[in-house]
Design the sequence.
C-alpha cells in the first residue's frame, strides 16, 4: 500500500505523460527531438545550475546530456524500452550523473553533507511572507540562500519545488526510498528557512 | 502521530502523495497541533517561491546542437545532405536512408530542397557524367573508410579496377575482402564510384542495386563492358604496348589508345615483368 496515493488529481499533475516523446524521438518523428529540447532544456539547465552553481558548466552538462539522450533513444534503446522509459527522471538522472562527474575532484567536496546539518531539533516552519518573496530582490535572496545549502539539499529543493516532481519520480531520479526522501526534503526545507533567516528575509509568525 | 514524523510528511500531504492511513494520521495531528498546522502553509509558500526560480540557459541548446539534417529525392534516389555536402544516398527507400543515417550520424532527417549544386552532382553521377569535385564530407568516417573512398574517387570515369587493386591503393594489399566490404557499405553510391570496382575474374560483379544497374552505369560512363567480359573469358588481366613496353589495366585510357598491332595481352603482372614491361604509372596495374 506504500505507493497508493490518496490525492489522485494532484499526483497526476506532477507526472505528465511524456513517454510518447521518447518513442517519437526513437522513431525519428519530425521535430520530436526539438520538442524534447524545448520541453526540458530550461528545467535541466536550472537543475544543473542548482547543483554546479556555474553557468558555463551547467550549459555544457545539459548539452552533453541531450546528445547522450538522443543517441540512446535513437540508437541504443529499442522501441519497447523507449515506451517504458520514465523520460523526465531519466533525463534528470543523466544530467545529475554528469554534474557529479564534473564536481568530482573539485573542491566542492569540502561542502558539508546534508546529514551533518541535522541537529535533531524539531521545530515548526515559520510562515514566510509570500508577498515579499514575489519581489525581485527577494527572489534573488532566495536564490542565494539556496546556493548556500549543501548540494544534496539544493538538488532536492530543485527537483521537488522547482520541477515539482512527485516523490516517486525523485526516487527514480536519485534513488533511495520515498520515506527517507521525505525526511531529506524536510531537512532541506528547514535549512533553506534558516539560510533565509540569515539573509534577513522577512518572516511573520 | 507526533510532531517530527508529521513535519516530514507535510510536503507529501500537500500533493496528496501519502498512503491513506498516514494521510489520516497526519491530518489528525494537525488538528491538535497549531505549530505543525502552520507548517503546511509555510511549505506551500516556500514551494511557491522556489517554483519561480527556474532559469533559462544563456544560449538555447538548439543553437549549439544541430539535431536534424535534411533529405530530398533526386530522380530515383533518396539523398541526405547537411552543411552543403551530400552525406548519404539510398537507391532503396526513404526508410532505408533514415535508418542508416540515424545509425551513422545519430541525427534525424527532415525534408528540404537539396541545393542545386548538390542536386547536379547526384544527377551527373546517376547519368554517368562523372563528378569532378564531389561535395562530400568524410570527417565522421574511419580512416580506412576515408581512404577507400579516396581510392574509389581516383578511378576515372570510363575505367574500372579490381578489388585487389583497390586493396593495394589503400595500403592493405592482403585485406582484399575487408576492403571489398567497405566498398559494399559505401554510403554515397554513384557519387563515390563503388561501381567502378569489378572482380578480376570477369563480369561486373555484385552490386547493391543489382548487377544490371552496375552494368548500365558503367556503360553510361563509357566502359566497354562486353570487351571486359571477352578479356576476362581469356584470362587476360593487363594490356601492354609493344612500342612503350608499358602495361596497363585494360580500361586505362592509355591502354585504350594502343594500336591493335601493338597490343600485347598478359595474364598476370609477373608475365608482363618477365617480358620486360613496366606497370603504367597512371593506372598502377601492379605494385611498383
Sequence:
Amino acid at each position: 500500500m506504500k505507493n497508493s496515493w490518496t490525492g489522485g488529481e494532484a499526483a497526476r499533475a506532477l507526472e505528465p505523460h511524456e513517454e510518447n516523446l521518447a518513442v517519437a524521438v526513437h522513431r525519428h518523428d519530425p521535430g520530436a527531438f526539438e520538442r524534447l529540447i524545448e520541453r526540458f532544456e530550461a528545467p535541466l539547465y536550472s537543475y544543473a545550475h542548482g547543483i554546479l552553481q556555474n553557468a558555463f558548466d551547467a550549459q555544457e552538462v545539459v548539452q552533453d546530456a541531450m546528445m547522450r539522450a538522443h543517441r540512446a533513444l535513437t540508437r541504443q534503446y529499442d522501441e519497447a524500452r523507449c515506451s517504458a522509459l520514465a523520460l523526465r527522471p531519466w533525463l534528470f538522472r543523466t544530467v545529475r550523473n554528469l554534474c557529479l562527474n564534473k564536481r568530482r575532484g573539485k573542491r566542492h567536496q569540502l561542502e558539508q553533507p546534508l546529514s551533518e546539518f541535522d541537529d535533531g531539533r524539531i521545530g515548526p516552519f515559520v510562515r514566510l511572507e509570500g508577498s515579499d518573496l514575489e519581489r525581485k530582490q527577494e527572489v534573488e535572496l532566495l536564490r542565494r540562500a539556496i546556493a548556500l545549502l549543501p548540494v544534496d539539499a539544493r538538488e532536492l529543493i530543485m527537483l521537488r519545488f522547482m520541477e515539482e516532481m512527485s516523490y516517486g519520480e525523485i526516487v527514480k531520479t536519485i534513488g533511495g526510498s520515498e520515506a527517507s526522501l521525505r525526511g531529506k526534503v524536510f531537512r532541506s526545507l528547514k535549512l533553506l528557512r534558516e539560510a533565509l533567516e540569515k539573509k534577513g528575509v522577512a518572516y511573520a509568525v | 502521530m507526533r510532531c517530527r514524523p508529521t513535519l516530514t510528511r507535510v510536503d507529501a500531504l500537500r500533493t496528496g502523495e501519502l498512503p491513506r492511513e498516514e494521510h489520516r494520521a497526519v491530518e489528525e495531528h494537525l488538528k491538535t497541533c497549531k505549530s505543525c498546522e502552520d507548517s503546511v502553509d509555510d511549505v506551500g509558500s516556500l514551494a511557491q517561491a522556489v517554483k519561480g526560480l527556474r532559469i533559462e540557459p544563456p544560449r538555447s541548446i538548439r543553437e549549439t546542437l544541430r539535431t536534424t539534417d535534411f533529405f530530398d529525392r533526386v530522380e530515383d534516389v533518396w539523398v541526405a545532405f547537411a552543411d552543403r555536402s551530400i552525406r548519404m544516398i539510398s537507391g532503396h527507400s526513404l526508410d532505408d536512408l533514415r535508418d542508416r543515417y540515424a545509425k551513422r550520424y545519430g541525427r534525424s532527417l527532415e525534408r528540404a530542397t537539396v541545393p542545386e549544386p548538390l542536386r547536379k552532382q547526384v544527377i551527373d553521377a546517376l547519368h554517368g557524367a562523372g563528378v569532378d569535385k564531389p561535395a562530400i564530407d568524410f570527417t565522421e568516417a574511419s580512416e580506412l573508410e576515408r581512404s577507400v573512398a579516396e581510392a574509389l574517387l581516383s578511378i576515372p570515369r570510363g575505367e574500372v579496377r579490381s578489388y585487389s587493386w583497390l586493396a593495394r591503393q589503400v595500403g592493405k594489399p592482403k585485406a582484399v575482402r575487408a576492403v571489398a566490404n567497405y566498398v559494399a557499405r559505401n554510403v554515397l553510391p554513384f557519387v563515390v564510384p563503388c561501381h567502378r570496382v569489378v572482380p578480376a575474374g570477369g563480369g561486373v560483379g555484385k552490386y547493391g542495386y543489382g548487377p544490371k544497374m552496375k552494368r548500365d552505369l558503367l556503360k553510361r560512363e563509357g566502359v566497354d563492358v562486353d570487351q571486359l567480359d571477352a578479356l576476362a573469358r581469356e584470362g587476360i588481366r593487363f594490356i601492354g604496348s609493344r612500342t612503350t613496353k608499358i602495361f596497363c589495366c585494360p580500361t586505362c585510357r592509355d591502354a585504350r589508345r594502343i594500336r591493335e598491332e601493338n597490343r600485347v595481352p598478359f595474364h598476370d603482372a609477373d608475365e608482363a615483368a618477365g617480358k620486360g614491361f613496366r606497370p603504367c604509372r597512371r593506372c598502377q596495374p601492379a605494385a611498383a
